[in-house]
Amino acid sequence: MPQAAEARRPAAKVPVSPIDPFSIDFFRNPHPAHEAVREAGPVVWLERYGTYAAARYAEVKEMLGDPATFCSSRGVGLSDFARETPWRPPSLVLERDPPEHDRARAVLNRALSATVMRSLRARFVEAAEALAGALARRDRFDAIADCAEVYPMMVLPDAVGLSKVGREHLLSYAATVFNMFGPDNELRRAALTQMAPHVEWIALQCKRETLTGDGIGATIHAAADTGEVTRREAELLVRSILSAGFDTTVHGIGAAMRSLAHNPDQFAALRADPSKARAAFEEAVRLESPVQTFFRTTTRDVELSGTRIPEGAKVLMLLGAANRDPRKWPHADRYDIDRSTAGHVAFGAGVHMCVGQLLARLEGEALLAAFARAFSAIEADGEAEPLFNNTLRGWARLPVKATAA
């Protein structure tokens, strides 16, 4: 164990876990390890990294709801910005605390409001119908490469107002960002070595002169005209959408496709009532939680469910584990599109709830409704290939067999 981690070992008796939540073996199937951490106690000590961790729903929800005690401004990854230099300028929303966070968040909330989503719905539905129709002409396809990666690229770049050239950088950039939240492992080092061209393209896309004049990006930059944010802050806010708006939605759609393919009764229920598409997507992101983990740092000595945590400690929130906590969710490992998913933490909670959640939900709903109309059956067609990322859960390949309606 590193010397710094040894020095931070808790004095009180806290369950100690040898689990490495950033290992390839863990990523292959995290659910048994999630259960082990959940059942070890409300707060455990991860000896490999010298950090606390919470895997139960109640504790994760409490941390998300108390940004004054469990702060984001010292980094939502393993790195502590009070002790280390951030690898990029910190996000104005993800890595800021109130009240600084609130000013920037207000601009994004307006740019991604329910009113804006209503204006995008027709375009998103049309694109979903076109993709579902094209795939219905094939009896087999890869639900990731041919669907989950394709659909967000059909709708979101135009909605934001990005240039047509270079959009292939989006997925690689997002994967890089989420790998950087982990420890100094092979995944993070690989992200560092290949990030430069993606970061450069994204930085250019965030500038006002690059964006179209009628998209979400232009709305954000309009806030700089009125002095709500600076021009540089506007660029960082556009970056926030490009960082979090693609891979997470790709893996949310992938989770829904995988869940429906493995639960034909649930696809039949969706097909019988396509208005359940939103619920089908919501249950999939609860079950598989595309964003699996985020860290917080304590701003004071605090007691969490009887465990004393000192000031300046990193605490890992296992969001994926919390979303399968049987204390909150009956039959938590079951995919059930009629389940009430209210309160799940796949998009976080509280002031730092995902800024792009309405976009992700619109995309998921539009696509699953289109699939319910285009196909009479979807089933797995071989083994899915997991995708490895320090923060995200998803699949690199997901072969399915589908029957056109």
Structure at a glance:
This protein has 405 residues and is of the alpha+beta class. Helix content is 47%, strand content 12%.
Q: How is this structure best described in words?
A:
By secondary structure, the chain is α+β, with helices and mostly antiparallel strands. The chain contains 18 helices and 13 strands. It has a single domain, classed as Cytochrome P450 (Cytochrome p450), CATH 1.10.630.10. It has helices at 3-7, 24-28, 31-40, 57-64, 100-111, 114-136, 144-148, 150-160, 169-179, 186-194, 196-205, 216-225, 231-244, 247-262, 264-272, 277-288, 319-322, 357-374; strands at 16-17, 44-46, 51-54, 70-71, 140-142, 293-298, 302-304, 307-309, 314-318, 375-380, 385-387, 394-397, 399-404. The strands form four sheets. It has a six-stranded mixed β-sheet, with helices on both faces. Helix 6 runs parallel beside helix 18 (357-374) and helix 14 (247-262) runs parallel beside helix 18 (357-374). It is globular and about 60 Å long.
